[in-house]
Design a protein that fits this description.
The chain is of the alpha/beta class. The protein folds into two domains: 155 residues, NAD(P)-binding Rossmann-like Domain (Rossmann fold, 3-Layer(aba) Sandwich), CATH 3.40.50.720; 151 residues, Dihydrodipicolinate Reductase, domain 2. The protein contains twelve helices and 15 strands. The strands form two sheets. The chain has an eight-stranded mixed beta sheet, sandwiched between helices. The protein has a seven-stranded mixed beta sheet with strand order 10-11-9-12-15-14-13. A hairpin with a 2-residue loop joins strand 14 and strand 15. The mean pLDDT is 94.
Length: 334
């Protein structure tokens, strides 16, 4: 297969950086177009860690130029911003992996938790980019909605046990994430003085990722009790999930059987941790049962499995190549 030209719009942020790091080493993708909303800078000015490793000019995003250069583009831009790009790119025949929330939800849910949707036509055709549940649909997708980080962790953890869950009982998710999940833009909440040696919940029970979790698990929003916490680490995420189940069974064997053919899910015999998945696309999952209570713990790198590496896996599947091509699989934190 010949080289596939791809581009990134939204190179300035943490997920944009992770996309660049993966794509410049990818065996099949050629990073041909790197852009943000302003352009006019070198990539190493935005990300000094790339100095002497990889350099290119960051352009101001131009749909016509991008369509001439690329077969596929990654959108690492905020919600609402992505919609305008997607509509124009799809019309030009460019495939898109969107890392924003713009195409993850039905129109009603999206508009309830975000803003009015201006591209309902493409919304109805978007494929939710969780390979473990949508691999076949991804093969023919033109537009992929890359999942949120919290939903990725939570859905992969609880999905194997949904048929054993007692009906009308809550799915309780206590999740903790590193500060990079808030993005580069500084706020009072993410200021070092506030985050350092601190831990706190934010948007409890009403976080925007709760309806995404509920929708993909096919349960009511009221069935999901989701509380995210910010912890003083740079990256990583752990979801502690509690559900009530109907019978006594070997939960570990259920988990092992469910993910036996999945390369990027590791079933663990001991409680999971953030360091073991840092810098990788792995989701590590642990389960423990006590009576009718099931505890599930899942760990991901919020910038990788929760964003950029999962986006590249989706792109691999869309373009008909090995889904693990170019995907880091060794944690870089000791």
């Amino acid at each position: 297969m010949s080289v596939i030209n791809v581009g990134i719009i939204g190179a300035s942020g943490y997920t944009g950086l992770e996309l660049v790091k993966i794509l410049i080493k990818h065996p099949k993708f050629q990073l041909s177009y790197v852009a943000n909303s302003e352009g006019g800078v070198m990539l190493s000015e935005l990300h000094p860690s790339l100095s002497g490793v990889y350099e290119c000019k960051v352009l101001k995003a131009d749909i016509d130029e991008l369509a001439q250069e690329c077969e596929l583009v990654f959108l690492a831009v905020p919600h609402q911003t992505a919609m305008a790009y997607v509509k124009a790119l799809i019309e030009k025949g460019v495939k898109v992996v969107d890392l924003s929330a713009d195409y993850r939800l039905t129109q009603g849910l999206y508009e309830e938790f975000y803003c009015p949707h201006t591209d309902v036509k493409n919304l109805s055709h978007a494929v939710y980019g969780l390979p473990e549940i949508n691999r076949e649909a991804l093969k023919s997708a033109k537009l992929v909605a890359n999942p949120g980080c919290f939903p990725t962790s939570a859905i992969l953890g609880v999905l194997p046990f949904m048929d054993k869950r007692l009906k009308n009982t809550p799915i309780i998710i206590d999740a903790k994430t590193g500060v990079s999940g808030a993005g580069k833009k500084l706020s009072d909440v993410t200021h070092f003085v506030n985050v350092n040696e601190n831990l706190f919940a934010y948007n409890p029970l009403m976080h925007r990722h709760a309806p995404e979790i509920a929708q993909k698990l096919y349960v009511d929003f009221d069935d999901v009790s989701f509380v995210p916490h910010l912890v003083p680490v740079t990256r990583g995420m752990i979801s502690s999930i509690y559900i009530q189940v109907s019978s006594d069974f070997d939960a570990f064997k259920v988990l092992e059987e469910f993910y036996k053919d999945e390369l990027h899910v590791r079933v663990c015999k001991n409680p999971v941790d953030m360091k073991s998945v840092s810098g990788t696309n792995f989701c590590d999952i642990y389960v423990k049962q006590k009576g009718n209570v099931l505890f599930i713990s899942s760990a991901i790198d919020n910038l990788m499995r929760g964003a950029s590496s999962q986006a590249v896996v989706n792109a691999n599947i869309m373009m008909g190549i090995d889904e693990s091509a170019g995907i880091p699989n060794i944690a870089y934190v000791p």
